[in-house]
Design goal:
single chain, alpha+beta, five-stranded mixed beta sheet, 13 helices, 5 strands, disordered C terminus
């Protein structure tokens, strides 16, 4: 948020900030010459970049490669491929603040221009890999919750908007998604994007925007979650009990109906608790974002 370092930074004076990666290129350029540096990478994005590959890969780590290297090359020649030979579902080219890409973008050159043309940003080069076992809705929810936690609370669109987006995504993840959640997420994003002082609010909406864009994936995510009996099934069950009681009062006392109800309701709770614990355990073991956002 303002003031920005270029106008008022160290000792309240204009300050230019460079990353360690940028400064680390200085000695090599001075020693070998600018032509040598420009010969590496692409014409508009010369040099090398350190790609931080994490998530569902066999060998996560930091790999220095020429600009323009593809994710396929990084995965196959450096990171050992997708974990356990599974299929790639999605990946972020530049950290959590960049829009996700899919398996179709494996051969997109990782330089600033090519990644932007594919609909995302290279950013820091922090690549998070998700495989076919990961839920995109869950990953997006955790990212938005991270930004909601990091919000300073100064700007209402950021403070309230990220909280509401995380709630909508949580409802979808739990299996209670509604058809109106797509336009709702879109509307929330419009009310947050470019409406705050700093860029945290803007970057928090990159993943939800991806979900709205890929409505098919979100539609599958709306059915995410294990619910042995939903509200409709439970209501139908109670209606059947009431009809049986009214139709055969001599054979079904109120006590027996109540007993059957509590037995089956207890079984429903046990099944739901079991499915919930199994899902939590699976998430803790397999989620590529577990160590990233807590």
């Amino acid at each position: 948020r303002p003031p920005f370092p270029a106008g008022e930074g160290l000792y309240a004076s204009p300050t230019l900030i460079y990353s360690v990666e940028t400064l680390a290129n200085g000695p090599s350029i001075l020693t070998e010459g600018p032509e040598w540096f420009a010969a590496i990478g692409t014409e508009k994005s010369p040099g090398t970049k350190v790609f931080s590959v994490s998530g569902k890969v066999e060998r996560p780590g930091n790999y220095e490669a020429p600009m323009g290297t593809t994710l396929r090359t990084l995965l196959e020649e450096h990171a050992g491929g997708v974990l356990a030979g599974r299929r790639l579902k999605a990946w972020t080219p530049g950290g959590s603040s960049t829009q996700m890409l899919t398996e179709e973008h494996l051969d997109v050159p990782l330089d600033f221009e090519s990644v932007a043309a594919a609909g995302s940003l290279l950013g820091t080069g922090a690549i998070i890999v998700m495989d076919e076992t990961d839920c995109i809705v869950e990953a997006t929810r955790r990212l938005v919750q991270f930004y909601a936690h990091e919000s300073c609370g100064k700007c209402t669109p950021c403070r309230e908007g990220t909280w509401w987006v995380s709630r909508v995504l949580a409802r979808i993840q739990q299996g209670y998604g509604r058809s109106e959640d797509l336009p709702l997420l879109d509307e929330l994003g419009e009310n947050i994007l470019f409406k705050a002082f700093c860029a945290l609010a803007d970057t928090s909406m990159t993943s939800p925007a991806y979900l709205v864009f890929l409505a098919v994936i979100l539609g599958n995510g709306m059915r995410y979650g294990l619910r042995p009996f939903g509200e409709a099934a439970l209501g139908s069950f109670l209606l059947v009990l009431l009809i049986l009681y009214l139709r055969f009062p001599n054979y079904m006392s109120a006590q027996s109906v109540a007993g059957i109800f509590f037995i089956l309701f207890g079984a429903i709770l046990v099944l739901y608790a079991y499915s919930l614990m199994a899902r939590i355990e699976r998430n803790l073991q397999t989620s590529p974002l577990a160590g990233f956002v807590g």
